[in-house]
């Protein structure tokens, strides 16, 4: 099963998270299928690649609770611009 979840990047005390499509059995920093965005909690910035998120969701990927909340904000902003 594929999930959309956060993958930690950055340095100590300055975490930045990538939103990735990854197998459920993989660890947090494991190999992913694709990067679909990023989230910076300190600057409260989000970038979502809407077509790739929709691609994975159509094929049965399940977002985690946090990714769902982040992408809901990001998708609404992206869809308003388009």
From TrEMBL:
It holds the Pfam family Ribosomal_S16. GO terms for molecular function: structural constituent of ribosome. The keyword NAD does not apply. It is found in: Plastid, Chloroplast. InterPro entries: Ribosomal_bS16, Ribosomal_bS16_CS, Ribosomal_bS16_dom_sf. GO terms for biological process: mitochondrial translation. Keywords: Chloroplast, Plastid, Ribonucleoprotein, Ribosomal protein. GO terms for cellular component: chloroplast; mitochondrion; small ribosomal subunit. The keyword Ribosomal protein applies. Belongs to the bacterial ribosomal protein bS16 family. PANTHER family: 30S RIBOSOMAL PROTEIN S16, SMALL RIBOSOMAL SUBUNIT PROTEIN BS16M. NCBIfam families: S16. HAMAP family: Ribosomal_bS16. This is Small ribosomal subunit protein bS16c. The lineage of its organism: Eukaryota, Viridiplantae, Streptophyta, Embryophyta, Tracheophyta. The gene is rps16.
